[in-house]
Write a structure and sequence with these properties.
four-stranded mixed sheet; 4 strands; elongated; 5% strand; 323 residues
Length: 323
């Protein structure tokens, strides 16, 4: 039986929840192990119960710092993203047709009308940003605006409004903070190993010392492995979530427009266009409807790709048109 857009939406939401839950758990385990290893290294003579208590305390401090960084990004991140990408806000009189399409899609999505920005670049692309639907913005390049017909433009704007409706920007911010926490802890641990510390000169004695020493060795081995692979695995999980949210936005766009071929046609034009976005960077590439950095877009089958392969996205959309 052919899948409907509702089936795809439900499946992608389930996949996203599982990936995010796994990411949070993974971050907690990495933070606890690396913090405990650092404490053992600094003072290996302290009792295990004391070290666990310290690990939890330091983990809490790291969590507070990460929360403050996330809070700043939550309120200021969208302004920075728009500025970095050279986006300029426009009014309805500047482009009535574009505003009408965005208004249609915001009504269909049941969210407030976002601010509209234009990026003066020949490369066709678009993205959405903002901490929630009340503070959302959509940005579109002049290249995309000029090269799409109305149905295709509607499909792209529906995709971006889907990101707003599904709170994808907030979700990806959460994942970015979790990755930052893992990288920070891994860097501290590796620097500690590099420059040494007091803990290497002290030794435990007695049965309790032997048992604690064995625990310390195990913690250190696990910590070294995590410090090396955790940042890589975290990024892989982040990209997996990003790909699921792109699929979800495509399916939600079909729910809003009831026209899968409009978005499919737009994706085909964007991917085939040779122009590369001048303001594109690895830090903001995941926001765009198609990866604006051509060399990364060509590696869409990689686990390090923030976007699903274009041909697979188009195939899914075309299949919906036959359903």
């Amino acid at each position: 039986m052919a899948q409907t857009f509702r089936d795809l939406i439900a499946a992608n939401k389930r996949n996203s929840v599982l990936l995010v839950a796994g990411f949070v758990l993974f971050t907690a385990v990495v933070a606890l192990v690396l913090t405990l290893a650092v404490l053992f290294f600094v003072d290996e003579r302290a009792a295990l119960s004391v070290q666990w208590g310290r690990a939890i305390l330091i983990g809490g401090i790291v969590g507070v710092v990460s929360f403050l960084v996330a809070l700043w990004s939550y309120y200021q991140g969208d302004k920075m993203i728009l500025a970095v990408n050279g986006a300029k806000e426009i009014e309805k009189k500047d482009d009535p047709r574009l505003f009408n399409v965005v208004e249609e899609m915001s009504i269909a999505a049941g969210v407030p009308m976002p601010k509209v920005y234009l990026i003066h670049d020949d490369a066709p692309n678009a993205f959405a940003t903002g901490r929630d639907p009340k503070h959302a913005a959509v940005a579109i390049t002049t290249g995309l605006r000029d090269k799409l017909n109305r149905e295709e433009l509607q499909g792209v704007m529906a995709h971006e409004m889907a990101h707003v409706k599904n709170y994808d920007i907030r979700l990806m911010l959460l994942l970015a903070v979790l990755i930052g926490t893992i990288v920070m802890l891994a860097d501290v641990f590796m620097q500690m190993l590099r420059f040494g510390g007091r803990g290497s000169s002290s030794r435990r004695s007695g049965k309790d010392g032997k048992g604690a020493g064995a625990v310390m060795v195990i913690v250190f081995i696990v910590a070294i492995l995590l410090a090396i692979i955790a940042p890589i695995l975290a990024q892989i999980i982040q990209f997996a979530v990003s790909r699921q949210r792109e699929y979800l936005a495509d399916a939600t766009a079909v729910e809003l427009t009831r026209n899968p071929l409009g978005l499919a046609g737009a994706l085909r034009k964007i991917s085939a266009d040779p122009a590369e976005l001048q303001s594109a960077s690895r830090g903001t590439a995941h926001l765009y409807i198609v990866n604006p950095i051509k060399k990364f877009a060509a590696r869409a089958n990689s686990v390090f790709s923030s976007h699903p392969p274009i041909d697979q996205r188009i195939a899914r959309l075309e299949a919906l048109s036959h359903g």
